[in-house]
Design a protein that fits this description.
Elements (H helix, E strand, L loop, with lengths): L1 H4 L14 H16 L10 E8 L6 E7 L5 E7 L5 H7 L5 E3 L9 E3 H12 L12 H11 L7 E7 L1 H16 L8 E7 L5 E2 H9 L5 E6 L27 H11 L7 E2 L3 E5 L15 H12 L1 H7 L10 E6 L2 E2 L4 E7 L6 E4 L2 E2 L3 E3 L5 E5 L11 E8 L2 E2 L7 E4 L6 E6 L2 E2 L4 E7 L6 E4 L2 E2 L3 E5 L2 E5 L9 E8 L2 E2 L7 E4 L3
Parallel strand pairs: 3-6, 6-7, 7-9, 9-11, 13-21, 23-31
Antiparallel strand pairs: 1-2, 2-3, 4-5, 8-10, 12-14, 14-18, 15-16, 15-19, 17-18, 19-20, 19-21, 22-24, 24-28, 25-26, 25-29, 27-28, 29-30, 29-31
């Protein structure tokens, strides 16, 4: 799983822009640094052999070889760098196409999976350690240079869409290897992989010889249910939740219908983890769309899978927690707070690169001069993000900066998180002002006390249904705080 997780290194391009060559070099540096880390499950016993990033950063794959004498090779594929909804939209499953690259004219796979496979199979490395080679060329050369004993073993692996691609690369590489002087054994271990093809693909896959053919899935990960039985996930999650809302059920049903009658089947031997739902994000258990989708993301995450298999976490990627002050003008000095800031980090205000910044040795603070964006940013509000060789920090509400002001309106916490009608609720965040309106779902509170720009106290108004979880939003002028699990309040009665 660690080798599969490493494929996500540097997956997000720098927000201000970078060439494919620069991103490839950044990914290679990051993967090399992690492979040499003795504290990871790979134990500094693997070496990068080849890596290629497809056009537009759609897919990536790399080859690593063992350095401990076991004569093992790993081919790890990375899927689309996106959340689960984008992954689904990216895969065209309403049409199946032949997959002759497998070594047989019979298997059929989804067109979307085939497109992803083609991007990986045809990608050409553009940087060391093996430039100007395709995956097959690089693997063949590596096997040829390897000792004859013990017999080389090639492991195909990947997480999420990378696992789907790995399940297709496996028969493809086995077919290609028939012409090689030195014959390797093949093993397939995927994690959280959506299906690649229909029964004909599975029949052919299962007819081949594999040292291992495991499909490792979190029992409560939604993604592996695409596209065989996605609709079954609408009944999730067990106690303590979250349960799917009507909006979630509609969304899942819509995606499930995109197969247009094609019956997809998973290859390999299913190995389920977390069957008792012991591993969950306990802050995402309310019956809301946001909590459900947040739990889906948690159950699917690389970190969750690493924990389930008992592997150490990867080194932390950068994360921005907040920016202070959150508004101003170009040239102002701001403090970016967060974690995972390394000496090689760079800072962007959306598409604007920051050229003057200082990274605190603690790795939790950056002092930056706001880059010039006046007259270019349409809304005036940008996300401040940090990029290094391991990755790019996600865009977060508290990490926004408003050129010219007013500050972004954000709710970061509510207390208490549950109560009756009339309960006074303390709302924390930023961008609050006198005259702000506070909404519990779509009902305005009739008692709002402004404390300061970071705190408001509002009384929970009466709703038709007083046994539900609602979002608390704050409106200041024309700006309204975005909804998030942090703003949820559960009514327990009148």
């Amino acid at each position: 799983m660690t080798l599969a997780a490493l494929a996500s290194t540097g997956a997000t391009p720098r927000p201000s822009g970078e060439t494919l060559e620069h991103q490839t070099a950044r990914i290679i540096t990051g993967i090399n640094a992690q492979l040499s880390d003795p504290g990871l499950a790979t134990q500094n016993a693997w070496q990068l052999v080849w890596l290629a990033l497809s056009d537009a950063n759609a897919n990536m794959a790399y080859i690593a070889k063992s350095t401990n004498g076991s004569n093992e090779f790993a081919v790890a594929a990375r899927g689309t760098d996106a959340d689960w909804t984008d992954i689904f939209e990216d895969i065209e499953v309403g049409k199946v196409v032949p997959f002759p690259e497998s070594g047989s004219p019979k298997p059929y796979v989804s067109k979307g999976a085939k497109d992803a496979f083609d991007r990986v199979a045809n990608a050409l490395s553009i940087a060391s350690p093996s430039p100007n080679l395709t995956l097959v060329q690089a693997l063949a050369a590596a096997i040829q240079a390897a000792p004859s004993s013990p017999q080389p073993t090639v492991y195909l692996t990947g997480h999420s869409l990378g696992g789907c691609i790995a399940s297709m690369l496996a028969p493809y590489l086995q077919a290609q290897a028939k012409t090689w002087k030195k014959q390797p054994k093949f093993a397939v271990i995927t994690y959280a992989a959506p299906t690649a093809g229909v029964q004909s693909f599975v029949d052919y896959f299962n007819s081949l010889s594999w040292v291992i053919d495991e499909r490792q899935n979190n029992a409560y990960d939604l993604v592996p249910h695409a596209w065989a039985d996605l609709d079954t996930t609408a009944g999730w999650y067990p106690s303590p939740g979250p349960q799917a809302t009507d909006e979630v059920k509609l969304l899942i049903g819509t995606f499930a219908q995109s197969t247009k009658g094609n019956v997809y089947v998973q290859p390999g031997t299913l190995c389920l983890m977390n069957t008792g739902y012991a591993s969950l994000n306990k802050s995402l258990i309310n019956k809301t769309t946001q909590d459900f989708l947040g739990q889906v993301a948690f159950q699917h995450a690389n970190d969750t899978y690493l924990d389930l298999v008992g592997a150490p976490d990867l080194p932390p990627r950068p994360e921005v927690t907040n920016v202070t002050p959150s508004f101003g003008k170009a040239g102002d000095t701001v403090t970016i707070n967060g974690t995972g800031f390394s000496p090689d980090s760079v800072v962007d205000f959306d598409q604007f690169a920051c050229t003057k910044f200082t990274i605190d040795p603690s790795g939790i603070k950056i002092t930056a001069q706001v880059p010039d964006g006046t007259g270019v940013v349409h809304t005036g509000v940008v996300h401040v993000r940090v990029t290094n060789t391991l990755g790019t920090s996600p865009a977060v509400a508290m990490g926004q900066f408003a050129y010219g002001g007013p500050p972004p309106v954000v709710v970061s916490a509510v207390s208490p998180t549950s109560g009756n009608v009339g309960t006074p609720v303390t709302i924390s965040g930023e961008g609050f002002a006198q005259g702000a309106t506070v909404y519990f779902k779509d009902k305005a509170s009739d008692s709002v006390k402004f404390v300061n720009t970071g705190q408001i106290i509002a009384t929970a108004p009466g709703l038709l249904d007083v046994h539900q979880t609602v979002d608390i939003t704050v409106k200041v002028g024309q700006a309204t705080s975005p909804k998030s699990p942090a703003d949820e309040f559960t009514y327990t009665g009148r």
